[in-house]
Amino acid sequence: MKANNPFRRDVRWIRGVGVGSFLVAAASVVPLAQSQAAATHTVSPDLTIIQVVQDAQQNYPLIHVSEQELNAAIANIRLARTSYLPRLDGIVEVNRATRNNVFGTLLPQSILPSMSGPVIGTNNAGSVWGSATGLLVNWQPFDFGLRHAKVESVAAARDRANATVQRSQLEVSSAAADAFLTVLAAGQAQRAAQVAVDNWETLRKSIHALTTSELRPGADESRIEAEKAAANTQLALATEAVEMGEATLSKFLSKPDDITRHLNSAHLLGEVPLGAEDDGAFHPESTPVMSEQHAIVSQSASELRATDRSWVPQFNLEAAGYGRGTGAETDGQRLGGGNGLAPTVGNYAVDLNVTFGFLDFASIRAREASQASTLKAEQSREALVSRQLQEQFAQARAALRATRSIAKNTPIQTAAARTTLAQATARYKAGLTSIDDVAQAQRLVVQAEMDDSIARLNVWRAFLQLQSVRGDLQPFLQAAQ
């Protein structure tokens, strides 16, 4: 077959067209796939109540404040324990000074430099070199429990800070979960209000047709217009509640833009939490609030013990080694050159000194009385907090039982209201009743639908409050998950 055979040319042309089409198709498919992947990537998953609570626990500033206060309290314990260690002080001094010394008494002060050596009867401006270096070790072998009491006091402060962290985490978690439920409830109210506006508009069109046909007076249509305007007002208020709830919820999110994500509400709107928590025993002492108050009482008691041990003798075991150098002689002569720049004369000393502030008794007794009153006040506050928690638990349990009963009743109420509306509408169209009955039935339907839409959320909120009072949100989070 010849090279320029028309059949072969057609095959090559067809093959070129096929390859080109394949390349064009591939080039068009790649951007499409990339755009679909990008579109898939930009779709954010629903925001769950578990994610909101976890985000708040990890990133809300109040918890960081409590954690840093706990770290400071732990560091204070290490600081208090350093009082058991001996103290070692060192000094090196080089000076150029005159040597005029006089007899006389000088009361303790921090202005005039001290001078050692005999009085040589001179009064001139001639100066000499002087030097000194030394070490002083100071240690308290025993202190009648004063240092231990101070360590116990700062340890109690550590326990209080730790309890504060737990309470802060509980409060922040509860507030974040409640904000999530609030936004959901406001959203349900907004949707119910929008449905009410749509229903009033449908009813208005129906009555408008009857009015146009002169089957009903024009006042009926005006009445429905007024009801629709009132429904629009309710819709505006519901929208405001949604926006305010979202503003509150966004402060618990590390990324405020996450508030634009859709809230996962299917489980919360479809079911109510189950469990035997209504009849469970309540132990206030196990809650973070009581733990914090108990730590405050322990801290006050530790501070009282430390104050009580303050009026005791102070025993200090000291040891010193030092050297002195001077360019002055005892007869008043001055040594030239670098004499005195080096400490050439050495000494050492060991002693045990005991100090006791006899007149500190009055001030220490006054501090003890003040601290004892503070301790009694904190103990009374602890009893008060226990009673308040008992009250809050009883109220939360009553609210949970009531909201469960309401959640069971609202579907019946909604169905009955819709039946009443249908009957009133049919009777109105037949001319057997006035527009007032229809309007009243429509308002009952709107109210019933709003109550039904948030009834299950109210059960979740009551359950959240009950677990918050208990001091453990895990049952709530597990049920919500």
Write the layout of secondary structure elements.
Elements: H1 6-42, H2 49-59, H3 61-81, E1 87-98, E2 127-139, H4 146-212, H5 218-250, H6 266-270, H7 288-308, E3 314-326, E4 345-355, H8 361-429, H9 435-470, H10 474-480
Helix pairs in contact: 2-4, 3-4, 4-5, 4-7, 4-9, 7-8, 8-9, 9-10
Could you walk me through the main structural features you see in this protein, from its secondary elements to its overall organization?
By secondary structure, the chain is an alpha+beta fold. Helices cover 64% and strands 10% of the residues. The protein is built from 10 helices and 4 strands, in the order H-H-H-E-E-H-H-H-H-E-E-H-H-H. A 4-stranded antiparallel β-sheet has the order 1-2-3-4, with no helix packed on it. Helix 4 (146-212) packs antiparallel against helix 5 (218-250), helix 4 packs antiparallel against helix 7 and helix 7 (288-308) packs antiparallel against helix 8 (361-429). The chain is elongated, with a radius of gyration of 43 Å. The relative contact order is 0.12. Residues 1-41 have low confidence and may be disordered.
Tell me the total number of β-strands: 4
Task: Please tell me what the overall shape is.
Answer: elongated
Classify the helix fraction into a percent range: 55-70%
Rg is 43 Å
Order of helices and strands: HHHEEHHHHEEHHH
> Span between N and C termini?
76 Å
Alpha plus pi helix count: 10
* Major sheet attributes: 4 strands, antiparallel
Q: From the helix content, strand content and strand pairing, which structural class follows?
A: alpha+beta
What order do the strands of the largest sheet run in, or round the barrel if closed?
A: 1-2-3-4
Instruction: Summarize model confidence as the mean pLDDT.
Output: 83
Strand proportion, as a percent range, falls in 5-15%
- Unreliable stretches, pLDDT < 50, 5 or more residues? 1-41
